[in-house]
Amino acid sequence: MLAADLWQLNKDNEGSSARVIRTRQAIGADGKPLRLDVAEIVGPDVAFLVDSTINACQEAKVEIRAVLHPVVTGPAGKRSTIQVHLPLLDPHMRADLQKRLEDSFADVAVVNSDFHAMRHKMEAASAALASVKATGTRTSGEIAEARAFLAWLADENFTYLGARDYTFALDANGQLAAEEPVVDEASGLGILRDPDRNVLSRGAEPTMLTPAVRAFINEASPIIVAKASFVSRVHRRSHADYVGVKRYDARGEVIGETRFVGLFTSEAYTRAADEVPLIRRKIENVKAAAPQGSRFSAKQLDAVLKNYPRDELFQISEGDLERISSGVLRLLLRPRTRLFIRRDRFDRYVSALLYTPRDSYNSELRTRAHRLLAEAYGGRTTAYYPSFGEGPLARVHLIIGVDPGHPEPDEDALDLQMRQLFETWEDALARVARATGADQTLPARAHFTGAYKETFQPEEGLADLLAIAQMPTGKGLRARVWGPDFEAHVSRVKIYHRDQPLDLAEIVPVLERMGLRVQAEVGYPIRIGVDGAPDGMVYVHDLAIDRPAGQKRLDARFEQTFQAIWGRETENDRFNSLVVALGADWRSAALLRTLCRYRSQSGLDPSETVQVRALAEHPDISNNLLKLFAIKFDPASQGDLDARRAAAAPVAAEIEKQLEAVATLDADRALRRLLALIKASQRTNFYLRDGEGKPFRHIAVKIASRAADPLPAPRPYREIFVWSPDVEGVHLRFGPVARGGLRWSDRRDDFRTEVLGLVKAQQVKNAVIVPVGSKGGFYPKNLPAKGTREEVQAAGIAAYKTFVGALLQLTDNIVDGKTVHPAGVIPWDGEDPYLVVAADKGTATFSDIANGLSADYNFWLGDAFASGGSVGYDHKKMGITARGAWEAVKRHFREMGHDTQSQPFSVIGIGDMSGDVFGNGMLLSKFIRLQAAFDHRHIFLDPNPADLEATWAERKRMFDLPRSSWADYNKTLISKGGGVFERSAKSIPLTPEIKALTGLTEDAVTPDALIKALLAAEVDLLWFGGIGAYIKASTQSHADVGDKTNDILRVDAKDVRAKVIAEGANLGVTQAGRIEFARKGGRINTDAIDNSAGVDSSDHEVNIKILTAAAINQGALKADDRNALLASMTDEVGHLVLVNNYDQTGALSVMQATAAADLDSHEALIDSLEAQGKLDRAVEGLPSTETFRRLRDAGQGLARPELAVIMAYAKLDLFASIVGSAAPDDPAFEEMLTGYFPRELEKYGEARKRHRLRREIIATMLSNRIVNMTGASFAVQKRDAEGLDAGHISQAFEAAFSAFHLDELVEKINGLDGKIPAAAQTIMMVETAANLRMLAGAFASDPALGRGSVSASHARYHDAIAEIRSVLPSALSPIVLGRVETRAEAYRHAGAPAGIAHDVALVRALASARETVDIAAETGWPLKATLFVHHQVGELLGLDRMRAAARDLQPRDQWDRLALQRVADDLPRRQSELSIAAIRFAKAAGIAPASMDRASAGRLAADWIAPRRASADRLTQPMSAFDRQGGWSLAKLVLLGDAVREFVYAVRAETGG
Asked: Is 775 a catalytic residue?
């Protein structure tokens, strides 16, 4: 029972993210209280739950008898359920325990919530220390050690509980003042969110600067470690550990502190002390004070002793051996000539070990040395034993026999003589140069210091000179690994730099990020003479570097990496440590960086620190990842894709197996996702080289996003990620043919998230054009910090060029009509030549730059690559985006009974007159009463504009200026109480007029408060022409919006009092905000609908340029004439684009009018698209199943913004189906293709027919026309529910649309804009759309259409239906004729002219005209006679009533709709069959058709029915009963449908059919 109680508690709260805690007396299964209590806690599963629970109970001194902790999975993820069995508690103890549990879990919640923030804060504190310079008391070593300690803490050695920043007060002299430090309360994380939670004292905090705190501030170490003053309520009950990190200003002075509180983990206490940063330094300092022994390892000493002459080992004394071996060890550190002498104890001989550089050793030198020794001792040369080991020195063992009384020479003098036997250092340098064939002038031009020559042999001097000779010009440097490894994990490196020595602070961070530590550094200047120029100075920095344990000695890859970092060929970050850890080169490290950076942009992956650690700690996996990448993409690896797949498979399998041994989840996740990314990669430029044979500075990878799990939804079709030291960027495409802008992003860490959010809107917006949505964004990483606007722009352009060039490098070209892959690029994705870009935020003037790159790459699209350039259709000059949005504005107001072009209306806007959308928009009507506007600089207020002509002219003047702001507005035109105010002002005084406009009552408010009031002000139109998300739903938080900049300005949609919102700019309103605004009666579409004209214009430009390029190639158009031709068509292009805006907003109005009735079909559409993975309702803000249920119960449909989304997705889905069908090849659609282009291009028919996107253009126009005219669900459900080919559906639609002259009828209805109420137009369009769905469905059921062209159907029906239409009323039954008149009267009553009202009303009855044409063709009778007979058969058998009922019934759900549709589709076929039988009866009876009228047709039908009266009565009699019993229902209609079929079968049987 107790377990069931716990389960139910969780079930009741599983939808909540809050943690529920209750402490109660337990109840048994019989409902009686038990003698025990239970504490129960349910909520999301996070860390520290059980241990914190137990600790709280123990602290309350409550005995724990049992603990249950099942973890279950709920709708929102894993949930933790805890039940603790306790003794029976009194009310006081129970309340006390409840309070302790609540306090504990409050801490647990904030600790878990802020974990990443606290960790990032510590990383930031460490990063800040990197920029702190060493001083006299603060060494770089101490700083490095402090950072190492913080890194060690972050490496799972510290459990974060809280963090908080403090700022220390300074006195007038800049010294620490006695005042209390200032607590930055907003910086509090974890438990230190609570301002009352103290770190160091139990009293009020912050405290005054105590001597202890002041001592910490003044000491050199940047770190303090201590115990906090409170006991942790999380994880374990003990005093928390406190780590304080100083913060410094630019001068290196302490200005504050960041305090971290937490708990050291168990691993922190079990690690050896000399492995722990900070501790090990203390230990080393203590040891340094004691006498030091040999600094060389026992292993190296062992090598010296093992290689010591064996005879000498037998005879030598321990003192001599220690003396000589230590001397030999020192000699190995600095190789040179050296003599070691040992006297025979009986004075019979002298044993000498002579060490000399092996390159200098020869027999002549050995003989001279031997003779010199013999002469010095008055002895004789007896023997010699040369030895050549692996090191740089040669050793010769010389024996000199002596006689008693021999001389006793000075051994130091002998050693000096030996050295003098060899050349001088300079001589030796020259000799070495000659011996090695080096440039003989190098030694002569070089001047070394004495310290250098004392330290290094001439051979090393020559090596330095050769390295200097290879240095790049300018301020570049060179690195060189030299010398043997004399100590474990220590390498020697030289760094060369011209003109001035390097600051160690410049070198150390580079090496540290490579995982290395500088042990020692000595600098040596070398003066180099240059002919005819002053001597130059090169500084040689000799470094001893500690390597990580287990890492191989440094080599040329290290040198190349260091030079690449210094030369900014790569970034200076932790990824460079992979060069040492993996033995990889710097380019391979850069590739891994690129892949990791892409993964990081997803927002789903571990941090960069975790990624690097995972790669470094698993070198076998990392190198296999590089191997797999090379197998896939290295052009040097011969073989086709099949061979590469075969080679890659075992490597991938090996990686999968290796991943099983990875111990930590984070590492496994990081490595496994890199594997998935490489598998999903399709192309790369990694192996390409520039004209000089060097790799490009940027790396680009093309990715099949849907295979690179996990990625946030929606996942693109393809994307290209670009990394370079200067820029990172991504380009997302949702299909092979896609377009969208490239924006200059200011979001370094999540620009992909920004682009993904934009491409969702772009995808919907692109429903009206050929390409689907794409979007790109790039982040320039090295903009000049204090550069001018021009300097910043230049850096941004350079980054843009890199980014766009990378995209082109991976894109196929078309040469002579054939697709060509880029040279050196291995494509895994087949042909992919379509890449089109456009301007966006920050790149408005960059199109010509992009087209210049297109020309450089000889890209097949030429200057169609980037639309909107100097040769093309400039959006701002055309005002096309604003004009498109204005079509929506005009429709909104027209449907409210207001004409924006002739009647004044009030506007509040976002933007200024220099902007494209705002500026153009505010010039589209001279009746605009612009009452207020704002941008990032000013707030414009004109509360009661009077002279609208003058204010329009002033806006026009400002728009025409090269640059302008609201400050340029003529203040004399502003009405009383208004003005132009700076947004930087502290406050703005409010006049009575401003108060009336805004509803504010204060006398002065901040600019932000004023803007917020303007957004909610009562106004006719709220016009979004600037960037920013200013309106959200009341159910959303500001964080949900993702636009932090405007959080303070944003308002809830429910508070917006504007009548209409138009989004000329993107994302002005969140989708949830749009829905909320629409639900409360506001008029709004979506940004994708409103501002789609821009992309439509660009798409026309691209396709026109493709056509004209083909015409030029065919010789039909002169290249020099193209630009003028493009310019001449500007107005017509604008017209073609605006037609789409007009049609699309009109389609939305029709969908909105029937939204409630269509709710089921809309839900079915969403379900279908979501099931196919084509739509994510959560991402698009579409209703859940439960929300649909609530809407259905309330009798509501989708809101207009929701309809806009499903309309777009329906078009996109239908487009994909049509383009994959044969329909675009139907010759009937050539006219549609022709109509897409301006009339001036009609002459280039051959180029148009061969247009590369011919099929896509036709499919786009068809999908738009079908969805605009029939609604979002018709075609898709027709395809999915009935299994019809989308191409066949589109042909059926077009046949119905043209054959029944509905195109002409729609044009007439639209022509009534402003002449009749918009409501009348809407209801006529609703009727027309319903008729079109019916007619298209009928055509779709005709198999003959699928075998031929729409042209055949048009020829068969178009003229015939026109003929029938003229006589149709005289043939209709009274029932049908009455229904026609009822509909016509409704349209007339709404305001429609009688003629058009009648035409619209008649179409439903005219549907039978197609049947009439088919019957006439079958029987050979004239149309008119056939018409009368067909309708009389329907009237006498009641089929006209059934057809009317099928049209009038309102289905309850989607299934009723399908059943009803089946009956409605079947009736015309059955009636046609019966009419044919009746006419054959007439022909057999010799009845002439020429004199046939309605009366005679009635007699004929009656005579034919008479012998079948009984069967006919089974049809007609129930209809009378239905009238008496309350009318028709679906069940009744289905039953009668069965009766009709039985009647038809009986007639067939009679005729033998």
From this structure: yes
